[in-house]
Amino acid sequence: MTQRSSQFDFADHSHRRYNPLTDSWVLVSPHRAKRPWLGQEESPSKPNAPEYDAACYLCPGNLRAFGDFNPSYSSTFIFTNDFPAVKAKQPEINSTDSPTSLKSRLLKTQSVEGQCFVICFSPKHNLTIPLMTFEALIKVVGAWTDLYRWLEKEAAMENKPYKYLQIFENKGTAMGCSNLHPHGQAWCLSTVPSEVEQEFRAFKKYLHQHSSHLMGDYITLELQERERIVLENETFLVVVPYWAVWPFETLVVSKPHLTSLVEFSDAQRKDLALIIKQLTVKYDNLFETSFPYSMGLHQAPLNANMKERANSWFHMHFYPPLLRSATVRKFLVGFELFGEPQRDLTAEQAAHRLRCLDSGVHYSQRSSTS
To answer: For a tag site, which of 107, 247, 271, 336 has the least CB within 10 Å?
Structure first.
């Protein structure tokens, strides 16, 4: 008969952690990190691309899919996606099914309209966010803000059905990025995406139960415990959330109650640009590779009313897949697909490793600065 340990060790014993943002659980199995790895390994990604690529449809002056040429842009450049996921105009869905029928009950459909944009962070093909200058990243944050503000005006003045702007970036081939030119995307939809809506419901429920905002209380807790903090400045806090699924997942959250980009002051935009650069430099330095991730901004809906703004809290999710090294990634398969998400190191272990890394000098630049 196996004897029970006299004291529970979070760094060694399996346990579940609750995610209040999604009302779900993640299984943590830190003892599994000791097992040998015999699975698929990725190729390490190194920053060795040219500054300009004549075959790249995102580089300045180059031809895109439908015959348009990019301008010779010298800073952040936004254009309408040539292959958008949603259309700006389409017919309404007309159903003749009875509202009490099984089909109406189980096979629900909702029309979605909107616009999709590509956001080129830099004209230089060989840069990624951690290799960009702080000044260039301020312009990226400014471009995100300008797009949000412009779409709010479009919705209000042109009577367009825009409700939410989802800004995101997929970095690296491990996260499905098909073009390595530094860029992100922004999808503007007539609906609020499910993941965001789930967070809004969690915020509303928490406020009703505790008369305070979930994010505000979580920031207070993290600042008290300081076990999972990776970075912080005047405006933003970066933590490995207690309920993280991805090995080195992080949450970037505004300390003051800011609901969207358009509420930021100039100083707060600079704080966001700086902490994004510092975090992504840490990521690259962790395994000395161009660290892949998916990143997304969550904020208030477009033209949010007073209640929607009070319920929103600006934050960013970073979901990187690398687990043990530059070549070993996390796969969400098996139990993760059919049971619940699972991770092999605790949030505290991941935060400690990230916190101890240099956030100022990129590993590829060390030889030139030493």
So the answer is: 107
Closest CA to 63 of 46, 79, 75, 86: 79
Q: Write out the H or E segment, with its range, that includes residue 27.
A: strand 24-28
**Count of structural domains within the chain:** 1
For 48-94, the pLDDT digits (tens) are 789 999 999 999 999 998 899 999 999 999 999 999 999 988 888 88
| Structural domain contains residue 209 | yes
User: How many residues are given for the chain?
Assistant: 370
What CATH number is given to the structural domain containing 296? 3.30.428.10
Annotated binding site for UDP-alpha-D-glucose: 32-35, 65, 81-82, 170, 176-178, 185, 330-331, 335-336, 342
- Answer whether residue 100 is part of any domain: no
Domain assignment of residue 21, yes or no: no
User: Residue 217: which domain range?
Assistant: 46-89+109-359
Chain segment 307-336, per-residue pLDDT in tens: 999 999 999 999 999 887 877 778 788 888
Question: What's the whole-model pTM score?
Answer: 0.93
